[in-house]
Amino acid sequence: MAGVVVFYTFLLAVSFVHLRRTHRLDDWEPYEELLDVSYAKPVSILVPAYNEEAGIVGSIRSLLSIEYPQYEVIVINDGSTDRTLEKLIEHFGLRPVYRVIRRQLEAKEIKMVYRSPAYPHLFVLDKENGGKADALNAGINASRYPYICSIDGDSVLERRAFLKVMKPMIEADGEVIASGGSIRIANGCRIERGDIVKVGLSRRPLVIMQTIEYLRAFLLGRLGLSRHNLLLIVSGAFGVFSKQWVIEAGGYADTAGEDMELVVRLHRLAREKNEEKKIIYIPDPVCWTEAPETYGDLRKQRRRWHRGLLESLWRHRTLLFNPKYGSIGLLSFPYFWFIEFLGPVVELAGYIVMVLSLFLGSLYIEFALLLLVVSVLYGSLLSAAAVLLEEWTERKFPNVSDFVWLFFFSLTETFWYRPLTAWWRCEGIIDAIRRRKQWGSMKRKGVSV
């Protein structure tokens, strides 16, 4: 517990210092030069879509309206069984076209390529079902530009998100090979025709807790790790990669956590080639995505995430405490093994021991209550700090009532939300041991109209 407290305090301090340095920077001036086509790097935006009819049109609209000089949008319809493809054809007037596709990565067969006459930089690949990783590999094969960006089919980007996430990659001149932005919860927001009209907060306790969780994970966790090149996750909902490095690393792998697995392979490849490459997180560029609203959907998601975490860690287990891989092997991998992966197991065991000890009469109540108070206070402090950092730097939530709700629920997390997610993540470990591969689909309502 002491080790976890010290580590998270360190991440909080690093995040605080970084955000304090950057939060007063002008929001437009540093990015103006990127609108020059000769300076900016063209990007291929890949949108894997499987049964995304509820939100796919709004997501593509948001991508077609982003402020970036040169890009293409490639939607990969991965054998959807609903009207995902039909909706795309109807709304964007898609027509079949011929397109040369270089088979650089293994992927299922592409049956047809469509293009929009109204939006010449919009393409849709209709392919056989092969899973998200397979769809992304097919998109990479079809892409024409040196940088690729993976976007979930239910996500909406802010207009300047690409300018902000690409700026460090362009200025680093090849040193940065991957960059990720922040993911925020779209539930409760008003989104019309792919644009964020009004930022709001859902009044569902489960969604509010996920909002707090995302703020803590991105503003504290990923920002702190990124500052020391220890980041092992670039969210699959919004991440930009150097296509050359992704292809050399073998593309996306068929795992439940394909985004993390690719990032680990990129770190590994860079170390084995003795090249100083960075994978970074940028807090400002924001992608809005739909979060689960029911306990059943959230349970499936968290089980899948933790199963994916174990799959990635186990595939690359030789990195653990391996000095050959520098800080990744000596710091980042131990953190993900012992805190992120084993943390829920220790936490759940603690709950079970507490309950059993109460009935068996072997509990030192005064000391147990002291530890409980410390745990509750520190967990709540971290969550509240993330909410305060959000309000201080980004101010995405304009209503004071939203901020009050976030702060209040951050103080309740330890009593109900953490035990639930700890149990679900332990179920994910059991799924991985039993080699259960189901994805666990979520019923989409759509984030945009």
Can you offer a commentary on this structure?
- It is a single chain.
- The protein is an alpha/beta fold and 449 residues long.
- The chain has a domain at 2-39 and 154-340: Spore Coat Polysaccharide Biosynthesis Protein SpsA, Chain A, CATH 3.90.550.
- Helix content is 49%, strand content 16%.
- The chain is built from 14 helices and twelve strands.
- The chain has helices spanning 2-22, 56-64, 84-92, 132-142, 161-171, 205-226, 243-249, 258-272, 295-315, 326-341, 343-360, 365-394, 400-410, 413-433; strands at residues 43-49, 71-78, 95-96, 110-115, 122-127, 147-151, 155-157, 176-185, 190-192, 195-198, 238-242, 278-289.
- The strands form two sheets. Strands 3-4-5-2-1-6-11-8-12-7 form a ten-stranded mixed β-sheet, sandwiched between helices.
- Strand 9 (190-192) and strand 10 (195-198) form a beta hairpin.
- Helix 11 packs across helix 14.
- The radius of gyration is 22 Å and the shape is globular.
- The mean pLDDT is 86.
